[in-house]
Every structure is written in structure tokens, then in C-alpha cells.
What we know:
The protein is 0% helix and 61% strand. By secondary structure, it is mostly beta strands.
Amino acid sequence: NALTVSAFNPTYFGPVDFIHHPTATNNDGVTSADSNSKYNADIQSAYVRDTIDVTPWLQLIGGVRFDRFDLSALDQNTNTNRERIDNMVSPQGAIILKPRQNLSFYGVYSQSYLPASGDQFSQLNNGTLIIQPQGFENMEIGAKWNILPHLLYSAAVYQLDRTNVPLADPNNPGFFILSGKNRIRGFENELTGYITDAWQAKFGYAYTDARVTSATSATILPGNRIQLVPLHQFALWNKYQIDPLWAAAVGVIYFSSSFAASDDLVRLPGFVRVDAAVYRKIDENWRVQLNVENVFDKGYWASADGNNNLSPGQPRTFRVLAIAKF
């Protein structure tokens, strides 16, 4: 029900009554039903995996996983029960070569699936009922190297193909087109661990070329970059133990430019952010730390939900933590 309040005293502290409407009309004149459904999800999974040591330097890994996803929803507005059952088989295989005890190379192939409803069970309607699970096919090769006993370097190149991406059908509201395809190719590497007994570091760089590979609308075309995925990401974090009680850290994060949506019309500028921290040990059980995020109060766009809904990053932020160990 409508409530009239004064513009000079707009805060209302009285009771609020929610009235359920089997149908409701929004401000755009579109009529829809209030959600009033009961859902049941029955998920069954089984997998088998085996590792074979062919030689001391060659290892083979193979496996397969079966998932049965049974989701039903009773729409109590219309007394309509909808059900969708997906049976998904996901194979995987890997080969590992270890020419040295502290060095290994690997290759991996895997397939996986995501039911169309995901974790949004309330989306099971006539439109989502017919959507096939999204498919993911991944190929990756990489290496891991223990440079020092407590210092690990890893690197990998990969290709991930995503199919059955659901896209809204502009000619049939509430339904979707299953022509969405994406391909993500990239390289990532990371160095993490102790460079000296007092100096702990973590360095990471990733190159991610995420592209649309099928025309899905007049503006989302093959070759477009996928929204919110920068080509380059870089992170560096250094922590130094000054003495048994005090430690300090500083880090740098870099994101190159990305797009607010996959039509590539609105570009989010890249940014660099600097973070820092100070640590103090009180005794054997207690320690405190001060974290400062965005030390130089850099203004940047952190995320977006479409071309006209951009979210800024946090300004300079201080956090004080007290940590106890028992």
C-alpha cells in the first residue's frame, strides 16, 4: 500500500506489510507474478580417478565424473510443477614429466558442465527449463619448479572453450538463445615463497585473451572481448620480517583496461593500486596488523554490471585486525 510522508521528515519507522500478488505490474507496464515457489534439488555424483606411475619420471592420471542434477519447482501461483534433469559426464586426463626432483612439466585435458540454473533455483521457468548445461573444455600445459626449498615458480598456458552460453532472446522475453560461445586463451605464472629467511614475496602475471566466438546479437560479435576481463593483470606482494616482533609489507596491483559489456562499447580504464601493511607480534598468542588498501587514494572503476552501471573502487581504506591463537 502507498504511504505518504513529509519531504522534511522522510524516514518512516512504522510497520511494513508485504502483500503477495499472483500477478503484479511494474512501472513499465509489464505484468509478472510474484515469486511463490517451492524448490527441490536432488544432486548425485560419482567419480573414479587413477594415477599410474609408469616410471620414476613419468606419471599418467585419468578419471571421469558423473553428475545427475534433478531440479523441480512447484509454482504455487499456477500450481504448475516444472522439472529438469541433467546427466553430465566429465572426463579428464593428465600426463606429468619429472626430469628432476624439483622440476615437473604437465599437460591436462578436461571437460566439465554447469546446469543452466546454476545456483539460481528461482530461475526455473518456461524459458530456463529448456536450456542445456553450459560446457567447458579446457586444455593446459605448464611447469612447476622449486627454485629453493621454500620458493616455487609455476607457469601455464591454456585454452578454455565455453559453449551453450545462455543469451536473452530479444524476440521472446523470458527465453534464451543457446548460441553463445566463448574462447579464453592465456598465460599465467607465479613466484611465491621465501627469497631469504626474512623476505617473503609473491609475484604473479596473467595474460588473458577472452573473446566471443559466435555472433549473438547486432552488437555482440565474434572477436569482441568478454566483459570485465583485462588482457593484463599483475600483482606483487613483499613482506619483510624486520625483527622477531615487527614486519612490514607493500604490494602493487595492476589491471589493464577492460570493457563493461561484451559489446565493447564502454571501456573501463586500467589502473594501478598500491597496498601496504604493518604487523606486530604481541606475545605467543596475540598479534595485530594494520592494512592500508589503495595507499595513494587512486580513483578507478573496479567493476560494472552493463554499460550504464559502473562500480568505483574503494578509496583509501584502513583495517586494524587483532588475531589470537589458542
